[in-house]
Every structure is written in C-alpha cells, then in structure tokens.
Amino acid sequence: MTEKKRAVKPIVLTSHPSARTPVSYPIQWGERDPKRRGPIIGTLTTPEHRNCMGTHSGAYSVYRALAVAAGSLDPLHVPDLTNTAPVDRIGPFDSWYEPKRIVSMDPWGADVGEVFRDEIKAGVNIQPTIAITRAHITMPEIVEEVRRGGISVDGEIVGANGDCKVTKAAIEPVWFLPAVAERFGIAESELRRALFEHTGGMFPELITRSDLHVLLPPIGGQTVYFFGEVASIPDLTKELTIRIHDECNGSDVFGSDICTCRPYLIHGIEECVKTAQRGGCGVIVYNRKEGRALGEVTKFLVYNARKRQEGGDRADMYFHRTECIAGVQDMRFQELMPDVLHWMGIKRIDRLVSMSDMKYNAITRSGIEVVERVSIPDDRIPADARVEMDAKKAAGYFAEHGAPTEEDLKKTKGRGLLE
Ligand SMILES: [Zn+2]
Questions:
Q1: Which of 232, 278, 301, 334 has the fewest C-beta atoms lying within 10 Å of its C-beta?
Q2: Which of 73, 66, 69, 47 is nearest to 3 (CA)?
C-alpha cells in the first residue's frame, strides 16, 4: 500500500457504526446449535461482520497493530486455515449449552472451521480461538525420574529417552460480559465501565455499544497439556488428575528458588504421567497470570520489599508486602478459572494437584467433585520458598499436617537480598 493511499483511508470508529443496523451474526451465548449460537467474529478485515469488542490473539493484538503500522502486515490479510484443524476432539458437552457455565472462553473455539464452514466459504473471516495439537516434551526432572525408576518407560506415553507424548491446547479468552459480571456479583454496566475506564479507555464500545456483549480482552490466555487419552476425561470410570498452574516465569522457566512453582508443576506433570499410565488422563492447565496476575514488575518490586524490610523476608509479612505495592494480594480471580474444566466436560477430579483453597473452592462451587487434594512433597520445597509456603498455609492453603501458627510464621525467614 502506498503512503498516499494509507493517508487518505478514513478511520473507522467501532464505537459509532455508520448505520445502526442490527449485528449481522448475532451471538446467542449458550445456544445448543452452534449455528444459532453464532460465530465469534473479532476480525477487522470486514468490520460489518464484527459481533464482539476487541480482537483476536489477546495481548498480541497490539503487536499485530504494530506490524500493520510498520508496514510488514497487510491489514486485510485473511488467514489460510488449511490443515490447522484440531488433532483431538473435545466436546461438545452439556456444559457448553449452559450460558452461565462457560463465560470466559468460546467452547466452539477449536471447531469453527467445521461448524462455520459455510460462513467462512461465504467470505466471513472467522478465526479459531482455540488450537489443539500434539507434541513430545522433554523435561530434565522427568528424564531424571525415569532414570531413577520412579516413572516407567511404556513406549506410548513415556518414550525411552524420558520424553512424554502430549496433546496440547492453546485458548484465547472470550468473555461473555453479562455472565462474567454475574460471577462477580456485579451489574454488567459496572463491569463495562470499569473495563473501559481502567484500561485508559481502550474499548469505547464497552460504553457505546449495548448491542455487543462479547469482549476479546487483550490479556494472556491458557495452555492445556493432556497426558493420556483426551477422550477419557469426562469418563467417570477413568481416573483424572489435574493441576491448575498459574504462570511464574521466574521459577517455571528460570528455576528461581523463592517459590515452589516449577517444583509443583513438575510434581503435577509426574502425577499426570502416572495417571495416564494407569489408563486415565492427566491435565495441566497453565494460565498466563504472571505474578498472581499482577505482572512481573510488581512481583520483582515485592521481592525487593520483602527482603529489605526490617527483620528480612518473613512469612508473617508475606501477603502484606504484596498488598502494600499492588493494593491487593492477588488479582487472579479464580471465579473464571473452572470454565476450562467445564469445556472438557469434567464432572469429577480424582486428584487435584494444588493446595490453593481459592482454586479448590472455585472448582467445587462450580459443581465439580474433587476426590483428593495432592500437596507438593515437602522435600521438593526450596529452602527460600518456605516463607511463601508457610504464609499460604496460614492463610488457608491445604495443609495435611496443620497450618503454622502466627508465632511459627515469625520464625520462617528467607534469604537476604544480596546473599
Ligand atoms: Zn513462583
């Protein structure tokens, strides 16, 4: 496109459509027939088809805008979806047809190429919000466990080199605002106003377009790793193990020892592999909610504040230091987290590899039975992460052998900042 052409192109204000014509593909959230439910159209190539606010790819939509600005991406590019269909089928389940059961993702998101084939053929730019593929993963701790004999090689789930075969799904957030608001016990208008005002006015349609109720928020999504037969997940005669893991780049990727994130993730993967080898399925849900969804800058500020406070890093001040900086202890909001479990048709979790009372409560309140909660083995907790573990146990985390008292918390101390 030439500079001249670009300069004369009018700006399309999504907040004020040229004609107040009804949305051409209305969304009827929870409708049983996906054709009647309607596709989620957040693409920008054909503005007249759009039926939601925001656009695809979550936080990465900003990079797409940058690519267009830099001249490296044709803004009218329509993805060629040949051979991109999911490798494993998930659903549909009855939970997909309850408008309030799944409110923060599109259960049909992986299947758009199939269920909206006619619309796509007719030129409607409908994009999947879920992609499902297969992979082999090789993690040093799992390889070591195989070498020590703790996990056996079966040639199917675990290969001779300690690599594991997985199915994995990537999920973009799709929020049906009336039901999201209801989860938090607030009015949709309150939610829309806060989302508009506290993102610096990012989506004016939140205020001006009362005919649109679905938002593709510019936030991180989820990745789900499946060990074993995906088809066995809703089968109540088969064992199901799950870990819900919230992103922690410092520990998950770089092995930082101030928290238990990677050791607990590894423990979750081991439990998933063993469940799959017993004929069931193991599932790791990995949520992009870095630093309790406060972000990594806030997290590192908290680390400094914790280690520099009088008396050093102490379990009794663990949550207080976060609250001083962020204003809250946690922004992960487990209210929306069970959606992904209902997408998989889960009714019962045999082994929940998590000690979080917030996650446990959200899951059981959403109608899923949890048979057993699996703690991180004590010998997997890094010394410097005792502060976190004791503080969390005292605050309500699952503690098989009792929670520490206030006096105990004062005694649990971490390493100094410069040590
Ligand atoms: Zn961590």
A1: 278
A2: 69
| Amino acid residing at 21 | T
The per-residue DSSP string of 284-325 comes to EEEE--HHHHT-HHHHHHHHHHHHHSTTSSBGGGHHHHHHHH
- The rounded Å distance from CA 253 to ligand 1 centre is 10
Evaluate whether 372 touches 275 at the Cβ level (below 8 Å).
no
Residue 190's pLDDT is what? 98
State pLDDT tens for residues 48-94.
Answer: 999 999 999 999 999 999 999 999 999 999 999 999 999 999 999 99
Mean pLDDT of 388-414: 92
User: 160: which residues sit within 8 A by CB, 6+ positions away?
Assistant: 153
Burial class (CB in 10 A: 0-12, 13-18, 19+), 170: middle
In terms of residues, how long is the chain? 419
Neighbours of 34 (CB within 10 A): 18
Distance, CA 376 to ligand 1 centroid (Å)? 13
**CA trace torsion 339, 341, 343, 345 (10° rounding):** -140
User: pLDDT tens for residues 141-199?
Assistant: 999 999 999 999 999 999 999 999 999 999 999 999 999 999 999 999 999 999 999 99
Contact by Cβ (8 Å): 240, 285:
no
251 Cα to the center of ligand 1, angstroms? 5
Enter the pTM of the model. Answer: 0.94
Does the pLDDT value for residue 340 go beyond 80? yes
Enumerate residues 6+ apart whose C-beta is below 8 A from 219: 58, 59, 173, 288
pLDDT (tens digit per residue) in 135-146? 999 999 999 999
Reply yes or no on whether 148 is catalytic: no
Q: Given 332, 351, 373, 386, which residue is catalytic?
A: 332
355/350 Cα distance (integer angstroms) = 14
Three-state DSSP class for 176?
Answer: strand
Per the annotation, the verdict on 332 as an active-site residue is yes
What is the sign, positive or negative, of the torsion defined by CA atoms of 258, 356, 186, 213? positive
Catalytic residue chosen out of the listed positions 111, 246, 313, 330: 330
Dmax over CA atoms of the chain, in Å, equals 71
Q: Cα–Cα–Cα angle for 140, 146, 149, nearest 5°?
A: 140
